[in-house]
Structures are given as structure tokens and as C-alpha cells.
């Protein structure tokens, strides 16, 4: 996968991703994050670095109203406390009423019953996008018991059928994160081979990607780009920046700082030069 050929459709996708990045920075999308307590600060900093405006609003009585004015929203189930679950239900209803695109990140579902049932309730609300590792996507589709906590025990390709099923059933873009990301809207299947293993050594490496997807969906909402393109753009920007950061890093700590720097500095021309993308129809 390191030498993926880039057909004309993939070249267009990379160009559209660069254009969305420039639009995002020109008009920072207000990105509403209901996320887990472990990653809140890192996620906010990632959004600020890429050019978005983060807001961590997970209080009952506020979350629904805020979802209605946000550009895009992330729901991450890493630490789903009772109050946060209530706020999430309120926020999803607010997003649905306002047409706000939102991302569901079903963290560590499968063996853990509370979050697993909650994720299956939320997916029925038809999120704009679903992002998870292969084991989480398989568990959400009811095809496995999940991974080892937040770690996947299944390959990305093993979750391909589950991703297609979820996309077709709920009308969502499904992004399966791994060494090669697999993205589908139920009609097209994209594979993105960019990224670096150090992303798995930083708390919030995957969770923050879900927030970046929400930001790009917010920009796409005003620009007219389709959700699959927006989610792919987020993945490309994030993973190309990770590759750049890894070249300057000595380990996980310096990588986390370098990732923020590269997210702030990555350009459309970097995507055009570095993207390794495969685009195909079903």
C-alpha cells in the first residue's frame, strides 16, 4: 500500500482536500466536542492548530442549544458518564434539528455494556460520520465483541464489510482507522496509506482525528463538498501532518508537540506531494 497508484478520481480528491483545508482556515468552523476526559485538552489544541475553533460543551441544558449553532460536532464515548450521556442525547437532537453534521466515535465498545448499548442507540440517529478502529466498527455492526479496550485486535480490511453495512444502513460515512485507513459512504471505498505509528503512542491520537473530521464536515456544510470528501480531507491533513511530525520527533512527547506544529503548517501542496490514496467504487 505504500506505492498506491493515484487514479484521476484520487487526484481530484486530494485537490479537493487541499481546497477544504484552505477554506477551513479562512473561516474557522465552530466545532462542538463532547469527548472524553482523557483527551479534552489535546483535542482542543489539535483543532486550534489546524485552524478550527473548539468548544467543549457537555453540560445538560447547554449541549443541545450549542449543537444548533455549531458548524460541526463530535460525540466521543471514551468516558461516557451519566451526565455526559444525557448531554449527548440533547446535543444529537439539537444537531438533527439544525442540520449540524456530527461524528460518532464509539470508543472501546464491544465488551463494555454501557457504552456499547449507548453507541447502538446513537447510531440509529444517523450520524454524518462514524470513526473508529476496526474492532470498534465491527462491534458497532454487531459482528464482534470489540478489541482490547481502545486497542484494535482486528485488521482494517477485516472491518470492510462492517463499514459498508453501517454506511448503507445509516447513511453515514464510515472511517476505519489503522495503518491504512478505510473510508466509505456505501458507494465508494477510499484507502489512505498515510500516517505514522507514533499516533498510537500519544493519548488522544485517534480521538482528535474525530474532532478534525467534525471540523471539516462543518466547512463542507458551507462549501457544498460531500461528506466523504470532507472526512477524507480530515484524514489526509491529519496523517500527512503526522508523517511530517515524526521526521522531527525523538519520541512520543516531542511527536505530540510536533504534530500540533505541523497541523498548523501543513499546506495543500504537502497533501498533493505526499498523499497515498486509492479510490474505488463498489
Explain this structure to me?
Helices cover 51% and strands 15% of the residues. The protein is an alpha/beta fold and 282 residues long. It has a single domain, classed as UDP-N-acetylmuramoyl-L-alanine:D-glutamate ligase, CATH 3.40.1190. The chain has a nine-stranded mixed β-sheet, with helices on both faces. Helix 2 links the parallel strand 1 and strand 2. It starts with 7 loop residues before the first helix and ends with a strand.
Index terms:
282 residues, alpha/beta, disordered N terminus, 11 helices, 15% strand, UDP-N-acetylmuramoyl-L-alanine:D-glutamate ligase
Count structural domains. Answer: 1
**Distance between the amino and carboxyl termini:** 19 Å
CATH fold-level assignment = UDP-N-acetylmuramoyl-L-alanine:D-glutamate ligase
Give the biggest sheet.
9 strands, mixed
Computed Rg: 17 Å
Derived from helix and strand composition plus strand pairing, the structural class reads alpha/beta
- CATH class equals Alpha Beta
The coarse silhouette is globular
Spans with pLDDT under 50 lasting ≥5 residues? 1-5
Mean pLDDT, to the nearest integer, reads: 93
Give the full name of the CATH homologous superfamily.
Ribokinase
Note the beta-strand portion. Answer: 5-15%
User: What's the total count of β strands?
Assistant: 9
Strand order of the largest sheet: 2-1-3-4-5-6-7-8-9
Give the H and E element order: HEHEHEHEHEHHEEEHHHHE
Helix residue percentage: 40-55%
CATH architecture: 3-Layer(aba) Sandwich
Number of helices: 11
Amino acid at each position: 500500500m505504500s506505492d498506491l497508484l493515484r487514479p484521476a478520481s484520487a487526484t481530484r480528491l486530494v485537490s479537493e482536500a487541499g481546497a477544504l483545508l484552505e477554506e477551513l482556515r479562512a473561516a474557522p468552523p465552530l466545532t462542538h466536542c463532547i469527548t472524553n476526559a482523557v483527551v479534552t485538552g489535546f483535542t482542543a489544541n489539535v483543532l486550534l492548530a489546524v485552524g478550527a475553533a473548539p468548544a467543549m460543551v457537555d453540560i445538560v441544558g447547554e449541549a443541545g442549544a450549542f449543537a444548533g449553532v455549531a458548524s460541526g460536532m463530535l460525540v466521543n464515548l471514551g468516558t461516557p458518564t451519566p451526565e455526559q450521556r444525557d448531554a449527548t442525547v440533547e446535543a444529537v437532537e439539537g444537531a438533527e434539528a439544525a442540520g449540524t453534521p456530527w461524528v460518532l466515535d464509539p470508543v472501546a465498545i464491544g465488551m463494555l455494556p454501557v457504552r456499547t448499548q449507548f453507541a447502538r442507540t446513537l447510531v440509529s440517529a444517523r450520524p454524518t460520520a462514524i470513526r473508529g478502529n476496526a474492532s470498534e466498527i465491527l462491534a458497532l455492526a454487531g459482528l464482534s465483541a470489540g478489541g482490547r479496550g481502545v486497542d484494535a485486535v482486528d485488521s482494517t480490511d477485516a472491518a470492510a464489510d462492517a463499514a459498508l453495512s453501517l454506511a448503507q444502513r445509516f447513511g453515514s460515512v464510515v472511517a476505519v482507522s489503522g495503518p491504512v485507513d478505510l473510508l466509505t459512504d456505501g458507494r465508494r471505498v477510499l484507502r489512505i496509506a498515510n500516517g505514522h505509528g507514533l499516533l498510537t503512542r500519544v493519548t488522544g491520537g485517534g480521538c482528535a482525528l474525530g474532532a478534525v473530521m467534525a471540523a471539516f464536515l462543518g466547512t463542507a456544510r458551507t462549501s457544498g463538498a460531500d461528506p466523504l470528501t470532507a472526512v477524507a480531507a480530515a484524514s489526509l491533513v491529519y496523517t500527512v501532518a503526522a508523517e511530517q511530525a515524526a521526521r522531527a520527533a525523538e519520541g512520543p512527547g516531542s511527536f505530540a508537540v510536533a504534530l500540533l506544529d505541523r497541523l498548523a503548517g501543513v499546506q495543500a501542496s504537502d497533501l498533493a506531494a505526499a498523499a497515498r490514496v486509492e479510490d474505488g467504487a463498489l
